[in-house]
Design brief:
By secondary structure, the chain is mainly beta. It has strands at residues 6-10, 29-36, 42-49, 55-58, 61-65, 70-77, 82-86, 91-94, 99-103, 109-111, 113-117, 128-130, 132-137.
């Protein structure tokens, strides 16, 4: 490196579109550094930047009854440990992929990854993929055969209810 250089940072090799700061790079790609001497002589060199942000993919589906829970699985890459939130605000974390998180929705819910961080970086939007649908079904109606009876004759009539939720028949 030559002493006395003043460095400026650019998006293009012609040094016509300036980069506000070398710390402003959030997307991988080729950027350019221009080194200028006090007399005006300069050299422009490319720098390839790789952003190693974590990735997360959530997938699958499940059907549960009201009041039950299920476990979601999130495949992650990057440097452990990972943490983040789902689209409903549920927090997850872990040190090995896939990460698992328990959810107990009260109605059918689609989950996506809202935030994801690893030991070094925060995931970009494009690095958080997939979705999973948890279908929640109501519990069946409790069976009711009517009031107790003490028949004196040969038969009794049961007054069974018709289920509002679920299916079934009396026999």
């Amino acid at each position: 490196s030559t002493s006395g250089l003043t460095f400026t940072y650019w998006y293009d090799a012609a040094a016509s579109s300036s980069l506000p700061s070398p710390t402003a790079v959030a997307i991988g790609g080729t950027y350019y550094i221009k080194g200028t001497l006090a007399g005006g002589c300069y050299d422009i060199q490319p720098v390839v930047v790789s952003i190693n942000s974590p990735t997360g993919d959530i997938s699958g589906s499940a059907t549960i009854c009201v009041g039950q829970s299920t476990t979601l699985s999130i495949d992650v890459t990057g440097v452990a440990p990972w943490s983040g939130t789902l689209s409903d605000g549920t927090v997850f974390s872990g040190s090995s992929s896939p990460l698992t998180v328990n959810v107990s929705p009260t109605s059918t819910t689609t989950y996506t990854i809202s935030t994801l961080l690893d030991a070094n970086c925060t995931a970009q939007s494009a690095d958080k993929t997939g979705s999973t649908v948890i279908t929640v079904t109501p519990l069946p109606t409790t069976a009711n055969a009517g009031s107790d009876q003490s028949p004196c004759g040969a038969s009794a009539t049961l007054a069974g209810n018709t289920p509002l939720v679920g299916t079934g028949s009396w026999s």
